[in-house]
Design goal:
Layout: H1 5-11, H2 14-24, E1 33-35, H3 37-43, E2 47-51, H4 61-70, H5 74-79, E3 81-84, H6 88-100, E4 104-108, H7 114-122, E5 126-129, H8 134-148, E6 151-152, H9 159-175, E7 181-185, H10 190-202, E8 207-213, H11 219-225, H12 248-257, E9 260-264, H13 266-278, H14 286-297, E10 306-310, H15 317-330, E11 334-342, H16 347-357, E12 361-368, E13 378-386, H17 390-402, E14 406-407
Protein name: L-threonine dehydratase catabolic TdcB
Enzyme class: lyase
InterPro entries: ACT_dom, ACT_ThrD-II-like, Ser/Thr_Dehydratase, Ser/Thr_deHydtase_PyrdxlP-BS, Thr_deHydtase_catblc, TrpB-like_PALP, TrpB-like_PALP_sf
């Protein structure tokens, strides 16, 4: 179904968001607003973090899912609901359905992280694994809805869902009434649209900035074209905002009320996630860290006070390890180096002594002694090191060369 901008604006109003908030009383938490001295110094303006990563189910998705399901007619509830998601929406639908006594079936990709699959089941949903990508999973869920009569709960393209997400905006205005800029991640656009409806109705002077991953940025070309367009093969670690096409309903609202949509790189997402963990002591998924990435990549571009919405914290531990290492590398705090040395007793110990003297922390060592590429008396060593920054990386490399080692990568 397509919506013009005017129709979309009529479908979600401030009254809808206020009604959603009453509906969510006792269900969704009013999540914390935490100040960040480090980010405030970095962007030269007061920065506050809206911690939806601490929401029930670990993201804002519960808000919209609950409002949507609570608004179903009795006969629709009796038919049950179905959803398709790789994680956050799945958990939101599962818990909302359980709280409302509605049967739920959630389709998830076969490659979805096991913690997210387990959590969705524990919240009460029947989980069905189908397809390798979300588009295949979505098609399966739609077929199931057609065959069984279950109501499909879209993750972002419905007015009730947008109204539920908009309750985040009401909380922001109450917790930080002096706010001048709100920065929020954008996938399909439901959260940004909901916040925009609530905030612009009460504080039209507040600037709202959406953030997309550069590899999955459908909104900039869509806004330029004046209608939703698809990005082929979206690619980003931030699966929470990895959406190939804007939703029709949120697109109209975002186009009218959101002041800017910018993009961030994978390196910037990694660095932001690392900062949230180290400085704010908050576990945040890459999509949730996207507003922080935007602040770090464009210091001075945001009028303060700034509120950055940390939309979720459901990060797969395996991905977390990879992202943290990537973030450390992007900051020059993680160095992978490969070198050759003479294969003799004590050679590896001497190498480690050189690194210790250079104050580099060895995280991992791979020692290869038998390889057709190596000479009879050669060995190859690959080291993963923790360093103190770009300058220290240079110092470590020079220390190795000064000690006579041949660095080959």
């Amino acid at each position: 179904m397509s919506y013009s901008t005017a129709q979309a604006l009529r479908t979600v109003t401030l009254d809808d968001v206020r009604g959603a908030r009453k509906m969510l009383s006792g269900v969704a938490r009013t999540t914390a607003m935490e100040g960040s001295r480090h980010l405030s110094r970095a962007v030269a303006a007061p920065v506050h973090l809206k911690c939806e990563n601490l929401q029930r189910t670990g993201s804002f998705k519960l808000r919209g899912a609950y409002v949507r399901i609570a608004g179903l007619l009795p006969e629709e509830r009796a038919a049950g609901v179905v959803a398709a998601s790789a994680g956050n929406h799945a958990q939101g639908v599962a818990l909302a359905s359980s709280l409302l006594g509605v049967r739920s079936t959630v389709f998830m990709p076969k490659g979805a992280p096991l913690p997210k699959i387990s959590a969705t089941r524990e919240y009460g949903a029947e989980v069905r694994l189908h397809g390798q990508v979300v588009d295949e999973t979505l098609a399966a869920a739609m077929d199931y809805a057609h065959e069984t009569g279950a109501v499909f709960i879209h993750p972002f393209d419905h007015p009730d869902v947008i109204a539920g997400q908009g309750t985040v905006g009401l909380e922001i205005l109450e917790q930080c009434p002096e706010v001048r800029t709100i920065v929020v991640g954008v996938g399909g656009g439901g959260l940004a649209a909901g916040i925009a409806v609530a905030v612009k109705a009460l504080r039209p002077d507040v600037r709202i900035v959406g953030v997309q991953a550069a590899g999955a940025a459908a909104y900039p070309p869509s806004l330029a074209a004046g209608h939703p367009v698809s990005v082929r093969n979206p690619a980003t670690m931030a699966d929470g905002i990895k959406v190939g096409r804007p939703g029709d309903v949120p697109f109209g609202i975002v186009g009218e009320l959101v002041d800017e949509v910018c993009t961030v790189t994978e390196d910037e997402l990694s660095a932001a996630l690392l900062l949230c963990l180290e400085r704010a002591k908050l576990v945040v998924e890459p999509a949730g860290a996207s507003p922080v990435a935007a602040l770090l990549s464009r210091p001075g571009a945001f009028e303060g006070p700034v509120v950055a919405v940390l939309s979720g914290g459901n990060v797969d531990p395996v991905l977390m390890e990879r992202v943290l290492r990537h973030g450390m590398a992007a900051q020059g705090r993680y160095l992978a180096v490969r070198l050759r040395l003479t294969d003799r007793p004590g050679a590896l110990a001497s190498l480690l002594g050189t690194l210790s003297a250079a104050d580099a922390n060895v995280l991992d060592v791979s020692h290869v002694r038998t390889d057709p590429r190596l000479g009879l008396t050669e060995a190859e060593v690959e080291l993963h090191l923790e360093t103190k920054g770009p300058a220290h990386c240079t110092e470590v490399g020079q220390a190795l060369r000064d000690a006579g080692y041949t660095v080959i990568g």
